[in-house]
């Protein structure tokens, strides 16, 4: 018996082989970044191992670096011009393009990450008939604390998602308790980093940094790495510095980063008369960050509702004792007084946290923190957790 197949149906069958023959197809959306290290690590791992193929859609005002990087690794990559200074209009314009690309590529899974790609990305995926829609909440609590007009949209995103990745226990609890996300939707998968390149300290670089920042004779040297935005807590660290220099006149704080609040923080430092005790380093080259951690006596983090805080994991992996507010990666990893110190988000409490480190065996505390971070936060754990979630989600649809 002869069976005739219509040309358009034959083309569809050719485009859509069974998943078992081609591996799962995951389409990532990401906004406001032209390079995302952990997506690069996922792509490199997938290229080496097979079993999963990727498509990347980047929403960015200029042609992103990621476009050529992902294509060079053999994966699809698309760019939608998007400027977050015109958020509402930009998302409306991006929506039909996202829908068309999802209809073209027909992924098994759409995985969204930041608010600006998640809202249009999930709507487009739903309209395109994608059954598995995963959201990683990388911006937990931001709308709740700083943009309440968008809380309704965060809740809408959680409704549109079939699966939600919480990157810390604080994130998971917030999603369930504050946003009303059904607990069965939420899986916790910590962010992770490849320990090798992120712990490669160079003695020559460390010597150059000590000279550059004038560290000779300064103790303690306390550092923080963060954008100058309200939730990172630079103002609270300035308050802590005011307390610490009373007892440690040679103390020095290094603020590594940049951002919109930098000028106001500089004004606060000047008003407190702390110019000789707080130095603004700007951003330090990514390859030199492990060596930056190596010149610190204490790493201090004062964020409020930090979704995760990769720099906390990095500092711990580099064996520098960490004092942090009880949030994100710190809350999940630190046993207070054993492998780090947890302190409330207030100047006096943060200063006392630093004093606790200085009054104990800081080297042993740093070593214990390193062991914990290497167990909880390597990229391997993030990879396995994400792949397991994908497999489970697709199994539910079978």
Number of domains: 2
* The CATH topology of the largest domain: Rossmann fold
Structural class: alpha/beta
Strand residue percentage: 15-25%
- The oligomeric state of the chains shown is single chain
Mean pLDDT: 93
Radius of gyration: 23 Å
Named at the architecture level, the CATH assignment of the largest domain is: 3-Layer(aba) Sandwich
Strand order of the largest sheet: 3-2-1-4-5-6-7
Annotation, overall tally of beta strands? 13
Could you describe the 3D structure shown?
The structure is a single chain. The protein is α/β, with parallel strands linked by helices and 398 residues long. The protein has 2 domains: 19-192 and 379-397, Rossmann fold; 195-376, Glycogen Phosphorylase B (Rossmann fold), CATH 3.40.50.2000. The protein contains 19 helices and 13 strands. It has helices spanning 7-15, 19-22, 37-49, 65-72, 87-105, 115-127, 142-146, 151-160, 169-177, 195-198, 203-212, 234-247, 262-271, 289-294, 310-317, 328-333, 347-358, 362-376, 379-397; strands at residues 24-31, 52-60, 76-81, 109-112, 132-136, 163-166, 186-188, 221-225, 252-256, 278-282, 298-301, 322-324, 341-342. Strand 9, helix 13 (262-271) and strand 10 form a beta-alpha-beta unit. Helix 5 crosses helix 6, helix 6 packs across helix 8 (151-160) and helix 12 (234-247) packs across helix 17. It is globular and about 65 Å long. Mean pLDDT is 93; it is low at 1-21.
Compose a concise summary of this entry.
The chain has 19 helices and 13 strands.
Secondary structure topology:
Elements: H1 7-15, H2 19-22, E1 24-31, H3 37-49, E2 52-60, H4 65-72, E3 76-81, H5 87-105, E4 109-112, H6 115-127, E5 132-136, H7 142-146, H8 151-160, E6 163-166, H9 169-177, E7 186-188, H10 195-198, H11 203-212, E8 221-225, H12 234-247, E9 252-256, H13 262-271, E10 278-282, H14 289-294, E11 298-301, H15 310-317, E12 322-324, H16 328-333, E13 341-342, H17 347-358, H18 362-376, H19 379-397
Parallel strand pairs: 1-2, 1-4, 2-3, 4-5, 5-6, 6-7, 8-9, 8-11, 9-10, 11-12, 12-13
Helix pairs in contact: 5-6, 6-8, 12-17, 15-18
